[in-house]
Amino acid sequence: MIKRREWRSKPCTRRFQRNADDNTWRESPTTWQIPFGRFTASAVSENGQTIYLAASASTQQKVADGTLIDVFAAPHRVFAVSSSSGQLLWQHDLTIGPKKSHANYSAEPINSLAIVPRTNKVAVALWDGRVAIVGP
After folding, report:
1. What is the pLDDT of residues 101-130, one digit of tens each?
2. Most buried among 17, 80, 81, 119, using CB within 10 Å?
3. Which DSSP string do the residues of 13-57 spell out, in sequence order?
4. Cβ atoms of 51 and 83 closer than 8 Å
5. What's the pTM?
6. Rg from Cα positions in the chain
């Protein structure tokens, strides 16, 4: 039996930013809803203004001996977050095929992210052997 964990948001706990003028920490008025799932990869834009995050949801699956294990499940998403404000800039859902090699035990649906130079896009390496280019 496969039990689905829903992709849901949990509120961010308090977030602080350092004020360079008076060298103090202040609570930020903006927060980003943190999605439930596993973050598997990250990258930073050339100018450091954007952080890209890859995440997948998970389900629990019963294996032959009756043990429940976590396995990746859709949706698979790439998020772009402002490094200064923490606000979500954009997100992109990806459709990913089955794992190409079952001998690769460390693989996640989104294996890695790499920025595309001089753009606001990111290259996404997928475990089905494809590469996706995503952006706003």
Report:
1. 666 665 788 888 999 999 989 999 888 888
2. 80
3. ---EEEETTTTEEEE-S---PEESSEEEEEEE-TTSSEEEEEEEE
4. yes
5. 0.69
6. 17
Q: 87: helix, coil or strand?
A: coil
Terminal CA-CA length for the chain: 37
Write the CA distances from 15 to 26, 82, 111, 120, integer angstroms.
9, 14, 28, 25
Using the 8-state DSSP alphabet, how is residue 105 labeled? Answer: T
Beta-ladder partners of 29: none
Question: Which single residue is written with the structure tokens 């973050």?
Answer: 39
Sign, CA torsion 88/80/135/35: negative
